[in-house]
Write a structure and sequence with these properties.
The protein is an alpha+beta fold and 392 residues long. The chain contains 13 helices and 17 strands. α1 crosses α10. The radius of gyration is 21 Å and the shape is globular. The chain starts with a strand and ends in a 6-residue tail after the last helix. The structure holds adenosine monophosphate. The site of adenosine monophosphate (AMP) has 13 residues, from β14.
Amino acid sequence: MRIAVVGAGQLARMLALEGWAMGFQFSFLATHDESSVCVDGLGSVIRYQAGTSAAEVYLKLGSPVVITVEKEDVDIDLLKALQQFCPVYPDPSIIHVCQHRGRERDFLNKIGVPCAVYQKVSNVDELSAAIDLIGLPAILKSCVAGYDGLNQWHFEKRADVIKFINTTDLSFQCILERKVSFTREFSIILVRDINGNHLRYPLTQNRHCKGVLLTSKAPVQDFDTRLNSQVDDIIKRFIHAWNYVGILAIECFETDSGVLVNELAPRVHNSGHWTQLGANTSQFQNHLRAITGMVLGATEAWGHAGMINLLGCTAPSAVLCQSNSQVHLYNKNPRPGRKLGHVNLVHYDDRQLTEQMYQILGDVYGDKNDSKRPEIPLQILDKVILSDLKPE
Ligand code: AMP
């Protein structure tokens, strides 16, 4: 049985690595300029050219039994046309919502899921009016092509807005969003099968550095019952609104006034990588089970799990390969900030896990004398990790 994945990055790689062990074969649909090094040797890569019919694409993909995606930036019309030949999960109409921040926010509002106050803007006048309404600090986010903090502008004061207006031609769709004073960031990783059964993984606490995920830990600690019931309510609303199939990641802020949803990912997600080592069934396995009609695997965590992203650099195996860790490298060439791999860790003790993560982060990123490494200044690491350590 062949599964086709739209996209050829690290998520496609990890889906295929998991799927090969389950007896599946893979093909990948990439754009003409998309790097496919991550999936080298894991299946055929088809380069899509505008104008190619869906029938031809389907045949070139090797007549898969199901098609899935590893990213939101996909050709929705093509995916809808491919539905004549086999199921496409998640449904393209859902991906269409998630690939545009404006549509996503409107959808969250429609189903009653709380998110930061926002306004849609696509020119300077609308931006000024939105700032009058929302106030500062605020963040302007492009509606498309804006992941990992890309195409986002942070305005702390009026002068930042004026500088932005003077240097950028604002003629594209954006949302202006109030800056949220959150206590923590976490994600809900959910999986739903074709029969409507769904399971959630333990909540994952995330730390970002310059808009990019740096670490995850699960299960999130000290999460009070009020927040938990808000999470349950958010999940119910998604399950009710969508006939979703596969993994859905919901990125959230924990604030003093409750949970706010920041972003949706209709696919396996970086904040779910810890499940490869730390949960009964990984997010990759469960996504494949869901889209091929199998029973879902249990989502409980073994103990405390952590994940560290390798951004722009890796480290010697003595640092990364420890008795309780697992390393994943994506076969990419190093480039500043590029996600090259990640390390998963498990521990029975949360505090010891945190200390071990801090040590590894320091070894990977912290050598100030090595000009290739200081991607992330040590002060930031201190803030990231020390704030996780609870007082004695
Ligand atoms: P995003 O691309 O929306 O996932 O944003 C990347 C990161 O920027 C988030 O994980 C947060 O750390 C930060 N961020 C995004 N939106 C906001 C917001 N409204 N208020 C505060 N921080 C934010």
